[in-house]
Amino acid sequence: RTVYLNGEYLPETEARVSIFDRGFVMADGVYEVTSVLQGKLLDFAGHLARLGRSLGELQMGNPLSAEEWLTIHRKLVELNGIHEGMIYLQVTRGNPGDRDFAYPPEDTPQTVVLFTQSKPGLADNPQARAGMRVVSVEDLRWGRRDIKTVQLLYPSMAKMEAKRRGVDDAWLVEDGFVTEGTSNNTYIVKDGRIITRQLSQDILHGITRASLLRYAAEAQMQIEERPFTIAEAQAADEAFFTSASAFVMPVVEVDGVALGSGRPGPVATRLRELYLEESLKTAI
Ligand code: PLP
User: What domains appear along the chain, each with residue ranges and CATH number?
Assistant: First the structure.
């Protein structure tokens, strides 16, 4: 695999980052994941905009222009022959040459890493036909979940808890309400209405979420942005989650309770089709 590191395209075995890198010792970095379908980038403008915002919230500059980011993404897709898959990008505060809590001087070069992951079957995903099962886990993450940082230990722990309990993912719960999934935004459907938590510092502002809600509104579907509980999810007609890599993923069971028919519902199924169709129109 060819990866990108600080201006160079390299074989992955030759890409090296300092042990003092702030990303390594402090999780001081942000990332984005953009999916590739039919060799094209989905929701690219949204991902770049959020990258800029995450960097800004952490007082980091954006090391590259929009055009440069696009060129690197496209080149990696081409060099690695990615038809369906993902591109991961990460920017850290770089290598201050030692470990220190204070940020290094602003002219310290940031570390920029991008790599691809080939994922055939991303669009025609058997899991989307079966639906996923989730369990609730207490949300013990930090208070700025709107910043897409690389500190992902707690979501990893929650994912492992879900696996231990024999299901696919965890829905995180704070003060009795679902915040989001380990790596996705969560929704329920009741009487045809799509219910999803409103944006705040409590959740990541999903790029897939933003596009999907726009497409759903254009299709005259009813949307309610508010928090919901696990009990409400268990009594819902349907549930699903969204992320750049899962698109729209039906959820068929919450904490052992099957939803509706126990199969992916019509709204989630339609929204998945709608998202794939519409996002491909603006893919670049
Ligand atoms: N929420 C969390 C915590 C995430 O990690 C992610 C994606 O990684 C999402 C939501 C979904 O965001 P997006 O649709 O931009 O992939």
Answer: 2-118 (3.30.470.10), 126-281 (3.20.10.10)
Active-site annotation holds for 75: no
Torsion of CA 97, 109, 31, 275, to 10 degrees: -170
Asked whether 206 and 179 are in contact (CB, 8 A), the reply is no
User: Hey, whose CA ends up nearest to atom 5 of ligand 1?
Assistant: 183
d(CA 46, CA 34): 10
61-116 pLDDT, tens per residue?
999 999 999 999 999 999 999 999 999 999 999 999 999 999 999 999 999 999 99
Catalytic residue among 75, 119, 148, 190: 148
The string of pLDDT tens digits covering residues 167-187 is 999 999 999 999 999 999 999
Question: Measured in angstroms, how far is the CA atom of residue 248 from the centroid of ligand 1?
Answer: 12
Q: Is the CB of 186 within 6 Å of ligand 1?
A: no
Judge if pTM exceeds 0.90.
yes
Pocket of ligand 1 contains residue 243 by CB under 6 Å: yes
| Residue having the nearest C-alpha atom to atom 2 of ligand 1 | 183
Task: Confirm or reject: Cβ of 184 under 6 Å from ligand 1.
Answer: yes
Cα–Cα distance for residue pair 119/85, rounded to 1 Å: 4
CA atoms within 13 A on the CB side of 157: 10
